[in-house]
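[SOLVED] Need 3D model of a two-part complex

Original post:
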Amino acid sequence: MTEHEIPREDAIYQSAVQVLRGGFALSAIVLVIGILVMMLTPVLTVLVIAMNFSRLGERKFVTLSLGVLAILVTSIAISVLR
Amino acid sequence: VDWTQAIELGIVALGAAVLGSMLGLGGGVFLVPIFTLFFDIDPKLAIGASAIAVVTNSVVGSTVHLRSRFTNLRLAMLLQVPTAAGALVGALLAVRAPDRILNALFGAVLTYAAISMFLRRKTSHIDTSHDPDPMLLGGVYYDPATKKEISYVPRQVYKGMGISGAAGMISGMLGVGGGVIQVPAMNLIMAIPVKAAAGTSALMVGITAVATSFVFYADNKIDPRVVLPAMIGIIAGAQVGSRLTRRVRTDRLIIVFVVVLLYLGFRLILEALNIDLPSFR
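Solution:
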């Protein structure tokens, strides 16, 4: 092995490490996004329920659904503001 | 948490969900104590993971109930206001509470679940279809078991809302769905048929657990390394559990489950009192 080959070999190892690290970081980000999407799904469901009660003209249930939504948004606001 | 432990957590979550869904308790009731007692996971990380697993289970499971019209959306939104508010308060208290308090509370809830399961062999079948319905909360669904259309009108609505608030708070503190308290309360106090109570609760527990999970997320108690095995295990376990329920006479297994619940409850209370028992691990 000559002196010139050592840095070249080193580069192969380094790039492999970088690819692995990058893949791991990206998958971790995707997983966290997946968890967040899961957490937001029921919030979206309540919003859709409120909109449908509104379409039916059922004001009392629109208010209740929006009340639930307000509590969930408060919970999200607490997590964002911390 | 390394890979082997993540796999172990996933298998345990699967087992917890099989048991939980066979009993109609949801997986969280078994998940948190097992994670805490046998895997030395921080109780708050276990509660956070359980809350996300409850959301996942509700998102997957409530579609079936919604399609069958077992879910009463008007009733769900009414009861959800105190439940979600209770969960938010409960979660804010839980992230600040010492682990001992959470363990003691969880132990008490497991003991309650065990005793109520042992005593609860009866469900209410009151015909409320001709009751007046001034709050427009009545529901109708087709029951494939009896091949009849069932209509009902919830009774004692304000009492139901009060119990929902308390159930929400316990749910927020412990990361369980709250169905353990809510389904029997809906059936026995509000005279709602079991299928409608279970269907309505299935949607509600997910919304309740969302209020909890964002608070735990803010407090860095949502760790993907614990959450993911719990999520995957709970989804797979709920599927297996619902299939097994159709084949196995769960009433014969009840006594075994009661013993398991009592054992876990007892261990958590001992843990809260700082009394050590020899560990299995």
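Edit: Chain A has two helices and no strands.
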